[in-house]
Task: structure prediction
Amino acid sequence: MITFRTLASGSSGNASLLELDRSDGGVDRYLFDAGISPRRLTNCLADLHLGWRDLTGVLPSHFDRDHVHLNIPKTLAAHQVPTILERGQQKEAGQVGIPGNLMRFHEGTLDLSSETKLQTVRVPHDEHVCCAFVVEHRGLKFALATDLGNVPKAFLTVAEGADVLAIESNHCPELLASSGRPAFLIDRIAGSHGHLSNQQCVEAVQTISNNRSPNAIVLLHLSAECNHPHAIENLWRERLPHLLASLHIAPRNETAGPFRAGREASLF
Ligand SMILES: [Zn+2]
Result:
């Protein structure tokens, strides 16, 4: 079984947790982004009866402060939590202070274990090396993409058929255009290296789910000012009504989930 939870989502902080049941009865746990304070993250983990030592690794999409909080590197060092990085992320990881001895590199694919394969795809976001993720584990697939101006074909291909799909649905173009923000900022957000609009998100989900509907679709990183759940719901009702039942919107400041796929552990 795979179990996904969002702990925080949006421009004030992003973090989510993926738990993978191993065949030997153990559980591997990966944190995707860690853009909230160590104290908040500690509390989120404690609510799940977990601590930092229960984390198998951290996978940052990129190193904006809302994805790796200023004080997180120290905490990772204190608890010896490995940070799993695509080679191109090395420089920025070093700049924010991720301990070099805890960096684990790959070139786009990595066997996280004998049962788990990671693939990353670079996505266009500002000047960063920003990665989207696909994790395949015991016949199940998890995909996550956040902070991207458009969705590269490579991601659509590797994420196809995802059982749990977490993807950015940042803004409604009309709300963004009428937000009163300066033109350069609007252009940056809506541009090819900015953030995904609700429409772009829907198109990506349509392609990824074409042959197989996900168990859960979790929308990430909604803009507080330039988006609204109603705008999303209306769009999905029109474009992807058959997926509405599996649609969830990650809240900004609280944990959401569990979103699961796979067989429940047998009851006896
Ligand atoms: Zn962000």
